[in-house]
Design brief:
Number of strands: 0
Helix content: 55-70%
Keywords: Hydrolase, Nuclease
Protein name: Deoxyribonuclease I
Order of helices and strands: HHH
Mean pLDDT: 95
Structural class: mainly alpha
Family: Belongs to the EndA/NucM nuclease family.
Pfam family, one: Endonuclease_1
Radius of gyration: 14 Å
Low-confidence stretches: none
GO molecular function: hydrolase activity; nuclease activity
Length: 81
């Protein structure tokens, strides 16, 4: 954490999830990402691949919302009860 620059770096275990969340928000809600942010999130997405808990969470969210985060992976809406 850099208090003077007012910057925070998330712990490595959640960097990929953060990247995929921003990619989803960018596409779904027209959130503009700077070129620098895009490059950072692409690196995080590649370095920190989707984990099983993230896939399971994506499926649960899709059952409620009717769609999942395509950057996490496919969902099966037929399995929602």
């Amino acid at each position: 954490m850099d208090f003077k620059a007012k910057k925070v770096m998330p712990r490595p275990s959640i960097r990929g999830m953060i990247a995929r969340t921003y990619f989803y928000m960018s596409k779904q809600y027209n959130l503009r990402l700077s070129r620098q942010d895009q490059q950072l999130y692409q690196a995080w997405n590649k370095t920190y691949p989707v984990q099983e808990w993230e896939r399971q969470r994506n499926q649960r969210v899709a059952c409620v919302m009717g769609r999942g985060n395509e950057f996490v992976g496919p969902v099966n809406l037929k399995s929602c009860s």
